[in-house]
Amino acid sequence: MTSNTTVSKCLTGRKDKQVESFWSSIFKQFRKNKLAVVSFYVLLVIILACIFVPIFSPYTMEQTNMQEKSLPPSAAHWFGTDDIGRDLFTRLFVGGRISLGISLAVVALECVIGILLGTLAGYYGGFVDGLIMRIADIFLCFPFLIICITIVSIFSSGPVTLIVTLAVLSWPSIARIVRAQILSLRELEYMEACEALGISDSRRMFRHLLPNVMAYVIVYATLGIAGTILTETSLSFLGMGIRFPIPTWGNLIQAARNPAVLDKYWWYWVPSGVAIFLTVMCWNIIGDALRDAVDPKMKR
Q: How many structural domains are present in the chain?
């Protein structure tokens, strides 16, 4: 009993030091990328603005004033007003709050499904692995945007439907990443030590294997948030996402479908377009920097 306890403590202490040094090396490598650091602060400003601007704004997202409709940007309305006199500055950041919230929820649900199935496939192998991967292949064969439009058209186009649809259709990618990492990690010596100590399968998977995969999951999640924002924007622009009166960046930019608005009322759609561009660009740069930090080939 004493021998097993000593071995377990040694393994746990060595593992904690390795995990700590691994994450600290990723952080140091990320800090060396100046563009990624700048992108992180820009993204932080956008997120804080989406949280606090609607709280402190003198206008609400639904407040109308027909006497001030279609006004260009001014001191009273920084991003102008729309065709029924709503303040577009407030609606932009309320829409950002909803778009970012949906994207985070989609990626979180997608990662939960993908991590669970990928871990089971990689750890058990054999029939379990074959079954899960064939299901993943079926999902990857679907034309993504067409299936999304079809499901949203059949059911309601509310936030819950959109989140579940995007997450269920997107989990195979992260599941494959997790499976590949688990397949290589389960053959290492410390897993043999876990087996010798009689540690249960669930504890091996979720206590000893998954922490070593989380760096790759975080990289995927940052890139996935950017892709989800674009998907939500595309669906909303086509009228298949979140619909009015709830604002999102996608349905705010939908105003550009009208040639008259595109030509005369640029403030209807340019701010939301710039917000989408900056947010997606920042997420992509951060994701690329994290991928370089995680990849051993990129470390000098």
A: 1
Domain of 139, CATH number, reads 1.10.3720.10
Residue-level pLDDT at 19: 47
Residue 79 lies in a domain: no
pTM of the prediction?
0.82
Residue 97 covered by a domain? yes
**Structural domain of 223:** 14-47+86-298
Whether 154 is in a domain gets the answer: yes
> Would you say residue 6 has pLDDT above 80?
no
Q: How confident is the model at residue 191 (pLDDT cuts 50, 70, 90)?
A: low
Q: How would residue 2 be classed by pLDDT, with cut points 50, 70 and 90?
A: very low
> 262, 282, 260, 258: which is closest to 270 by C-alpha?
262
DSSP string, the chain: -HHHHHHHHHHHHHHHHHHHHHHHHHHHHHHH-HHHHHHHHHHHHHHHHHHHHHHH-SS-TT---GGGTTPPS-SSSTT-B-TT--BHHHHHHHHHHHHHHHHHHHHHHHHHHHHHHHHHHHHH-HHHHHHHHHHHHHHHHS-HHHHHHHHHHHS--SHHHHHHHHHHHHHHHHHHHHHHHHHHHTTSHHHHHHHHTT--HHHIIIIIIGGGTHHHHHHHHHHHHHHHHHHHHHHHHTTSSS-TTS--HHHHGGGGGSHHHHHH-GGGTHHHHHHHHHHHHHHHHHHHHHHHHH-GGG--
User: How high is the pLDDT of residue 20?
Assistant: 53
Per-residue confidence (pLDDT) for residue 298, from 0 to 100: 52
pLDDT of 8 over the 50 cut: no
